[in-house]
Design a protein that fits this description.
This protein has 130 residues and is α+β, with helices and mostly antiparallel strands. It is built from 4 helices and 5 strands; from the N terminus they run ααααβββββ. The strands form 2 sheets. A 3-stranded mixed β-sheet has the order 4-3-5, with no helix packed on it. The longest helix has 13 residues. The radius of gyration is 17 Å and the shape is globular.
């Protein structure tokens, strides 16, 4: 996702593109599946509360995904549709794109529930840990 597109969406939704928000966005763009501590390490001039609020805003706008990969919250850009293989031994995360979920076959849920997105995490042991 180009930073220009992301900043455009932030503005289009009525929010300011602050230097702190740009720093957090650049930090997340630097590497997928980062923890909060890793993101803060990439933008040390931004306070912890500001990082949390920025992550919440970016997730709300659909620019960032919050994942729970077994060791706490991780964050990634919401650029494409993919899923994750997570090694329970070393914690490595591998992405895969083939989606085994057919959303049309999900049972109908009452109340007019509309699926916007989904995620899939598969846990196991990688070849290095076997």
């Amino acid at each position: 996702m180009a930073l220009e597109r992301a900043t455009g969406k932030i503005r289009d939704c009525g929010h300011k593109v602050t230097p702190q928000r740009l720093a957090v966005l650049r930090a997340i763009a630097a590497e997928q599946h980062q923890s909060m501590e890793e993101i803060r390490g990439r933008c040390p001039g931004v306070g912890m509360v500001t990082v949390y609020r920025t992550l919440d805003l970016l997730a709300e706008l659909g620019l960032v995904r919050r994942l729970d990969l077994g060791d706490g919250a991780r964050y990634e850009l919401a650029e494409d549709h993919h899923h994750h293989l997570i090694c329970e031994g070393c914690g490595s995360v591998t992405e895969f794109e083939q989606c085994p979920v057919d959303l049309r076959s999900l049972p109908r849920v009452g109340g007019g529930f509309e699926v916007r997105a989904h995620s899939l995490e598969v846990y196991g042991t990688c070849s290095d840990c076997r």
